[in-house]
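Aim 2 progress update. The chain analyzed this quarter is reproduced below.
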Amino acid sequence: MFFSCFCVFACPHSVNTCIICAMRTTLIRISEASRKRLEDSKRETGKSFVNLVDDVLGVDEYTLRDEELNEWVQQDDSPSPPPVSPTRAYAPLPKPSPAVIDAQLLMCWQHELNRRSKKKNATKIQDILLSRKELLRAVRQKIRLGYYPTKPHAPVQPDSDHITWATLYPQWFKNNHKSRSAFQVFCDNRLASLVKQGFLRRVEDGLYRLSSLYPLYQYKNEWAAITGVTLLPPQQGLEIPRLVSITPTAQRLRHGDSLIFGEA
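Predicted structure tokens:
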């Protein structure tokens, strides 16, 4: 297999002359296919190679700000990189259970099916394509307001206080419109997990469709469980290790493979 040297800072210089590589960083060797995949993802998302690698590893703490590094590389006349901040111990931000996000992502297909069913041309749920932008917008509203798409889809709360996931986890939801926010990184990781488990299929970059959970009449119990999770009142410490176990219809998976929703 062909391998190529790859600088995680995506420096345009050669390895021998790169000032960045003389820093406390690491050069890694990756396959040509992985390098091309990273370049495609960089063009699609606008993220740096550093951010893409950190997303995969679940890292959200930095010792060097990307914007400073990128500015320094573009100027190409500075004798040294920006100062490095002291390294801090990585501590994951408290956030909702993965199943909460997974359930809301999958419910987007049900909501879109209901919306389209009001029109003359009937649509099958497996034919619906949803973009990453549409999915994140739905999850963002659910986290911020407590419901999606309308108030009847809000959970019943026992007291008069209106609690949302955003009020429970404000630091996690902070800067949620930014691509490197903890919220967007978590949602992207959950999308990748649903694809890996066989619930979703990525048709092309940033575009998804269901790869299981249909025909609907065969998965009534599973959809009832998913709907139930979206109607749970927000509460700290809520863990849902197992929600749905199904045999997917996707042909790329072996018959009888069991999927555990919310664990991966």
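Residues 104 and 230 are 6 Å apart (CA to CA). The first helix runs from residue 32 to 45. These observations will guide the mutagenesis experiments scheduled for the next reporting period.
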